[in-house]
TrEMBL record:
InterPro entries: GMPP_N, Man1P_GuaTrfase/Man6P_Isoase, Man6P_isomerase-2_C, Mannose-6P_isomerase_type2, NTP_transferase_dom, Nucleotide-diphossugar_trans, RmlC-like_jellyroll, RmlC_Cupin_sf. It comes from Albimonas donghaensis. Its EC number is 2.7.7.13. This is mannose-1-phosphate guanylyltransferase. Coiled coil: none annotated.
């Protein structure tokens, strides 16, 4: 993938740290987005993931390497996609548990406290912004106010009476630059949303903020002092793990679970808003994805592998290789087909997808939270077939990637290389396998698989035995510190 960190050169002397929040695990775009692999890491709008598009948007002259906030489950996914995008991170902070945006942002500010005049540009990693150049201009407008000690938020010019977003009220109709913010407004009902839209003085709250490190630290001290001690302690007690910094768990768990809006913004007086109308969407439902995909004159949008015949206001998407999705005579329908799950819904009720996830959890269905492709620091695997006493997997290993030195108590394995070269260790024997070559791993044998090449390596693994769970692994060595 070509580096996304080129961008348009801009003459800026200030230092802006993008603080990218990429630890969320929402369910609103199930089955594509699940707890084990949420939407920010998916390529929803093109070849790059939403996270990578965010990295590109918040890069270029004047921007420092980003500060990433994520959790332990996503740490290797984030670093892999960061590397694919050609970037580096200033810091990667690992939250021991989700505590909402206020503790996360405060942790980033504490970690940057030795640069009090640096600017923090806080952004979610799962939003779509169509006009990156216009957004950079908005950032430039916000930077001046932030340097002057303001807490700056970005407001989106609304085009409909949306009930799914919070709002920002201005004293007057918005203009092109930074201006005072009167107040935050909670998500309204339909009638209130229509009334606010009619006044011309309200913007959607995008959840994007900018402020100096010293300004936001002072704001937390003034408005949310109870967060200061646990978050500062979690940073002080944290530890470096490979390229990550793990926040101290005990202290961090003592921080209140609260958003930055509630903790600080709604209580502060030094508030500024920068309006933005360059095409923003938080992709909060399949209906919004349908709109962003660009439906035709009949309201039909499809992805590769999907075909619509005599349909209206319909979105068809397939993310399963080799699967064709065909809709005939559909109206107001969203259908999303994946390898292990299919969603069919009235597109106008697509925000109810979370109800489906809740129902699947009650049924103990793995599809509720587990993605069919399981990502690991060395690559990924997916199950092709599972039956009594056997399982067939497809495995991809990144160039230079290696699985842990391990053994199994309950299963033996056969590996067949189908693309690339594998370096295989079985007991004391080490050998290279090329395409169409195979190896047998006896029950209990200490073994390891590596990719010594410069291209991804793919193989088929056939497991057999009385128990095939992922917890049947004894690790002896692991370059990813999982042993």
């Amino acid at each position: 993938m070509e580096s996304v960190f080129g961008g348009v050169a801009r003459k800026m002397t200030r230092k802006i740290y993008p603080v990218i929040l990429c630890g969320g695990s929402g369910t609103r775009l199930w089955p594509l987005s699940r707890k084990s692999y949420p939407k920010q890491f998916s390529a929803l709008m093109g070849e790059a993931s939403l996270f990578q598009l965010t990295l590109k948007r918040l890069s270029g002259e004047g921007y420092a390497d980003p500060v990433l906030l994520t959790n332990s489950d996503f740490r290797f996914i984030a670093t892999q996609q960061l590397g694919e995008a050609g970037g580096n991170a200033s810091k990667i902070l690992i939250e021991p548990a989700a505590r909402n945006t206020a503790p996360a942002i405060l942790a980033a500010a504490v970690a940057l406290a030795d640069e009090p005049d640096a600017l923090m540009l806080v952004a979610p990693s799962d939003h779509v912004i169509k006009d990156d150049a216009a957004f950079r201009l908005a950032v430039d407008a916000a930077a001046g106010a932030a340097e002057a000690g303001q807490l700056v938020t970005f407001g989106i010019t609304p085009d409909r009476p949306e009930t799914g977003y919070g709002y920002l009220e201005l004293e007057t109709a918005p203009d092109a630059g930074a201006q005072p913010l009167k107040r935050f407004v909670e998500k309204p009902d339909a009638e209130a949303a229509a009334e606010m839209l009619a006044t011309g003085r309200f913007l959607w709250n995008a959840g994007i903020f900018m402020f100096k490190v010293s300004t936001i630290l002072k704001a937390f001290e003034d408005h949310a002092p109870g967060l200061m001690a646990p978050v500062r302690a979690s940073v002080a007690e944290g530890a470096t793990d490979l390229c990550f910094f793990r926040l101290g768990e005990t202290a961090y768990m003592g921080a209140e679970d609260i958003s930055i809006d509630y903790a600080v913004m709604e209580r502060a007086a030094n508030l500024t808003v920068v309006p933005f109308n360059g095409g923003w969407n938080d992709l909060g439902s399949w209906e919004t994805v349908w709109r962003e995909t660009g439906p035709d004159a009949d309201g039909v949008a499809t992805t590769q592998g999907a075909t619509a015949i005599d349909c209206k206001n319909t979105f068809l998407r397939t993310d399963s290789e080799g699967t064709r999705l065909v809709g005939i005579g559909l109206e107001n329908i969203v259908a999303v087909a994946m390898q292990d799950a299919v969603l069919v819904a009235d597109i106008r009720q697509s925000q109810r997808v979370k109800e489906a996830v809740a129902a699947l959890k009650l049924e103990n269905a793995g599809q509720a939270e587990d993605f069919p492709r399981f990502h690991r620091p060395w690559g990924w695997y997916e199950t092709l077939s599972l039956g009594r006493r056997f399982q067939v997997k497809r495995i991809m290993v990144y160039p230079g990637g290696q699985l842990s030195l391990q053994s199994h108590v309950h299963r033996s394995e056969h590996w067949v290389v189908v693309e690339g070269t594998a370096k295989v260790t079985v007991g004391e024997e080490v050998k290279l396998l090329s395409e169409n070559q195979s190896v047998y791993i006896p029950l209990g044998a200490v073994h390891r698989m590596e990719n010594p090449g410069k291209v991804p390596m793919y193989l088929i693994e056939v497991q057999s035995g009385p128990y095939l769970g992922e917890d049947d692994i004894i690790r002896y060595e692991d370059v990813y510190a999982r042993a």
